[in-house]
Amino acid sequence: MANKGPAYGMSRDVQSKIEKKYDDELEDRLVEWIVAQCGSSVGRPDRGRLGFQVWLKNGIVLSQLVNSLYPDGSKPVKIPEAPPTMVFKQMEQIAQFLKAAEDYGVVKTDMFQTVDLFEAKDMAAVQRTLVALGSLAVTKNDGHYHGDPNWFMKKAQEHKRDFTESQLKEGKNVIGLQMGSNKGASQAGMSYGRP
């Protein structure tokens, strides 16, 4: 990575706004979920934004998390024997997590970029991705989610409706309220311009 000095002016303001979005209470809940989902072998981070970032930085904990949401035998992310020490290998591990999370159903707008985590640029985005992943796991309710289901909100489910032909024909005869009505409307008494 390139050496970066301190940020000044607008760059500093933008970075401070991004850092203010980070939620310490959400961090505690996410740590509890990751430990419940993956087991105590993943350890616990030091409290705070940077401790959380260091814990997730090499991608191993994230990979174990996403693998735990799949049934045995179909793990989407390969986890190396020894944690990667080279920067590009760590970033590659994070990218594999992001691909697996997207395949699981997390939408692209909820995903963080690799540098958001690796360089701690936007740890709030990392939290958003993990919350979206947890919400999907609770919603799927396939037995692979571990932890308190109240930690995450369930996503809205599709509610498909089947209408009969006669119901569809009746709907064509109804004038919607957005169309309005012109009962008794006329332009009598309206004048524009000079007489």
TrEMBL record:
Broad class of the protein's primary localization: cytoplasm
Coiled-coil stretches: none
Top-level taxon of the source organism: Eukaryota
Subcellular location: Cytoplasm
PROSITE patterns associated with the record: CALPONIN_1 (PS01052), CALPONIN_2 (PS51122), CH (PS50021)
GO cellular component, one term: cytoplasm
Any Pfam family: Calponin
Calponin-homology (CH) domain residues: 24-137
Stored CDD domains: CH_TAGLN
Keywords, comma-separated and alphabetical: Acetylation, Cytoplasm, Muscle protein
Family label: Belongs to the calponin family.
Protein name per its UniProtKB record: Transgelin
